[in-house]
Structures are given as C-alpha cells and as structure tokens.
Amino acid sequence: MRSAPRLLTVLLAASVLSAPALVNADSALVTKSGTLYEVFRTSYGEVIPGAPAADARMPIVALRRTQAGTGTTTLEIVRGTDDASEKGEPSIEYEETTGTAFVVYTKFHGLMSELRVAVRRNDQWVEQDILPNRGLYLSVNPQTIVTRQRYVDFDGKGGTVPKMRSILHLVWWEESGALSQARYAAAFVEDGVLRLDSIKPENLNEVAGAQGPTPTNGLPFSAYQFPAIERDPITNGGVVAAFANLFTKKYSVVRISFPDDITKMVPNGVTIGNSEAYARLHRPVGRTVTDTRIPEFDTPEPVGTVIGLEGQLTFYWVQKKSVWFVNGDAPEKTSPTSLAVRPDFPVERALAVVREMARKN
Predict the structure, then answer these.
(1) Other CB atoms closer than 10 Å to residue 218's CB: what's the count?
(2) Which of 301, 210, 220 is closest to 253 using CA atoms?
(3) Residues 6+ positions from 337 with CB-CB distance below 8 Å
(4) Helix, strand, coil % (nearest 5) of the chain?
(5) pTM of this prediction?
(6) Per residue in 154-174, pLDDT tens?
(7) Quick check: 176 and 183 in contact, CB under 8 A?
(8) Pairwise CA distance, residues 285 & 201, whole Å
(9) Which residues contact 283 (CB under 8 A, 6 or more apart)?
(10) What span, in angstroms and rounded, lies between the C-alpha atoms of 21 and 75?
C-alpha cells in the first residue's frame, strides 16, 4: 500500500483518466505556466483500480494536475494520506520560484485531529505534522497562502546581500484543552532550501496581544471556527489574518509580517549572524488592524471570509442552492443576505460577485 505513489507514475501518466478525474476539487489553483493543480478527498480504490477490497474504501487526498495546452492530466495520492484515518478538507498553494506545491489538510485520530503539510517538489513528496497545543486537540479548517519577501542577509565577506525568500503561511482553528483559538505557522524557502524544520505554531490570540480564557458562550461553530488569511499588499511579504478571539469576544484582523534585515538583529558593527539572529528573522510580528463583534450566523457549511483593505470583513457560504453573506460591521441580529443560484447564474459566478462586492466596501 505504501508504494502506491510510485505505482501511480506508471498507471496514471495518461491524458484521460476515469471517474476520479471528474471529482470536484476541494481546493484548486493555476500556476503562471497554466498548469492546473487540484486536491480533493476520495477513496484509494477510486485512484488505484483493482485495489484489494480492504484498501479500496480507504479515505485519501488526491492531487490532480492538468498541463496547459495539451490537457494532459495526471493523478497521484498525496503523501501521508494513504491510511485509514479520515481526512479534513485540503487546501493547496504553489511556490513558483522552486516549483513547490503545498497541500495542507487535517487527519483525524478518533476524536482528535492534527494539521499536516505535504510538500511536492521535483516529483518527490515530503510531509510534516504541525504540533498542536498540549492535551486533547482538534485542528480544523486550515487555510494557506504563499508570499515573497525581500530581505537583507550577510554575504559571508563582511558585507550584506539582498535576497528573496518565499513564506508559506498557515492558519487554522484548534480546540485544545480549555482553549478554543485560531493558530498560525510559517515555513520558509530560503536559498532554494525548504525549511520545514523552522515551523513553529503560534496562537493568534498571542500574536494579536490579547490572550486568556476562551469560552464560546454558546456561539455556533460557524461563527468562530473559520479563520481566514490573505496576502497583504502594503507589507513586504506579509499577510492579513481574520479570526475570532473568544477572549476579547471580538473578530480581529491582524497584520502579520517578518523582520527583513539581518543587520538589525545583531549589535552594531557585527558582520555575521548567529543562530539567535536568524531565528528572529522567522518570528512573526503582529499588529491588530480592526476588532469587530463576532457575528452569530449559524450554518453547517464551510464559511469563507473576504478581508478588505481597511480590515472590513464579509462572511459567505453556499447553502440550499444560494450563496449567503453577511458583513462583519452589520448591526447585531442582522440576517444574512442570499443570492439564488440559477442555471444562467451558477454558484461560481455568485461567489465571484459577492467577493467583488466585499472588496468595494
């Protein structure tokens, strides 16, 4: 069973695939070269025809790639997902400089679930779990984005050199012990090297400078368990994250960035960095942009969030053949608005209209 990804290279390097090729993606993106990447949950038997009955129903996450121009499609199992554990909805991102695909998903172990990152680079997979807080834990609803940052490094000759690095940003919701909070982690691609070992999860409440007990006070899950992340156009490789802080009882938007000059991490006159200085280049710096009330909409569907330039929020979801949305600054008890989906106004178009409206606020 563990040799499946190698077997797929032989079985699935074809231009037309069977039923799995038609499965709707949980997450998708297109690279600058036009290659379409899609990840979705399916079963082992759907990807490996003729698999033994004991393995056929195994839940896995699959990656489907469609080449631009030719339409050639390949399908493979995401590393680490070929086991009996249930998997949560995956999310995919892509780093153009090194051609690296990042797949983020949750893996369940009984009542607990952990966050995992699978990385595909040079046709090889590596994987990394993200350490939860201590005790019982439930990690759900991961989101991921890749940004590029300019930074200054020592050149090893007594001077400095400008460089570029890629940053993989992750946010998710975690229930652990008595705490219910959003978490954040980052991984770096520096000098062509993927540094998965540098991932250090942070509690977003702490990054925002407001932490303490986090009672839910009867809030529906949909009101607080879906943190969001977007690229920040006004910082150097940073992001903006939106999340419910159950300690402050506010929905917060925080800018997250990283130091970008090694010379500011060492004493004056020093021309070489030490381990502490480089560690500081990987520590997030948070600044709260806005705090608004936590809207109490209740839906069993996944919730998306648009973060406006000034920190305004719009929450949306698809339910009962409609796209529903509510503005974060709407008065308390405001009912969500809905757009009905029609054959000539499909859900993808309705979602695009809602997102466009949200960015104009």
Answers:
(1) 6
(2) 210
(3) 324, 325, 326
(4) 15, 45, 40
(5) 0.87
(6) 998 999 999 999 999 999 999
(7) no
(8) 13
(9) 258, 259
(10) 8
